[in-house]
Amino acid sequence: MEPNTGAKARNVTGDDRDFQSSELGTKQFWDDVYVRDLDNYKESADVGDIWFGEQSQMRVVRWLENCEDVDMQDAILDLGCGNGMMLVELHEEGYRDLTGVDYSGAAVQLARNIADKEGMTDIKYETADLIRDVREGALTCRCGHYKVCVDKGTYDAISLMPDDAVTARQTYRTNIKHLLRADGLFVITSCNWTREQLEEFFSTDFSLHSVIPTPTFQFGGKTGNSVTSLVFKPKS
Ligand SMILES: C[S@@+](CC[C@H](N)C(=O)[O-])C[C@H]1O[C@@H](n2cnc3c(N)ncnc32)[C@H](O)[C@@H]1O
Fold it and tell me: Given phi > 0 = left and psi -120 to 50 = alpha, else beta, which region is 137?
């Protein structure tokens, strides 16, 4: 997912003065993507995009496998699951308490179809908007239940919302805190935000647990990452 690629990009005010909103921050965009992908899947069994590539997904899966704090029976929630391929991969590795949430009904339908075809009928899916307060019943997902919440590209999409992205991001952050167990982990993969920016924003409720190494590039004498993967733990 390239940042700021929407044709209707404009500047966002407030603490994100240099950040731009775009169509990628709208539900309509994602509905269109997943309605198309659902049709393609029915026709040709093509599951569609794995955002930021398969390597980004596998880095998260491998990190969880190697994390001594996470067991196969722990509840894992994929926030903005899209086609659900992260959960399919985790299921293949042996995790069994898996739930995906996305606000696009077509994404959830696609994810359901893919999981069912793989015989993974125990993966749970739900259509819900993650910037509505989870304590007010926006989700049937349970507060304080999840050992791991995974986000790959969803915070990025929320950050590109045309209207009041700052409030949306803050609600999203609060929701994650409520959904996680006290000893839970929030694993985020972003291509729009740097490690420093993510650490700063999430520091109100989370502290850094780990950095999942990602490829680096060099430009103008500086080293950077095109994708950042971090693991946060909730502050008590
Ligand atoms: C870049 S895609 C990533 C999809 C998936 N995580 C992956 O890695 O393939 C962003 C996803 O976030 C979902 N999304 C964006 N805003 C959301 C919101 N407010 N509530 C729930 N899902 C949202 C989109 O529908 C889309 O599936």
Answer: left
Percent with pLDDT over 70 in the chain: 91
Domains of the chain with bracketed CATH: 12-214+224-234 (3.40.50.150)
The CB of 154 under 6 Å from ligand 1? The reply is yes
The pLDDT value given to residue 106? 98
Neighbours of 203 (CB within 10 A): 12
Q: How far is the CA of 7 from the centre of ligand 1 (A)?
A: 19
The three-state secondary structure class of 161 is coil
Is a pLDDT exceeding 90 seen at residue 79? yes
* pLDDT of the residue at 217: 74
Output the six-digit token pair for 200.
């700063």
| Any atom of ligand 1 within 6 Å of the Cβ of 179 | no
E strand or H helix that includes residue 190:
strand 180-190
CA distance 125 to 39: 19
- How much distance in Å is there from the Cα of 161 to the middle of ligand 1? 12
Burial class (CB in 10 A: 0-12, 13-18, 19+), 37: buried
Query: Looking at this protein, which amino acid is placed at residue 219?
Result: F
Beta-carbon-side half-sphere exposure of residue 64 (alpha carbons within 13 Å):
30
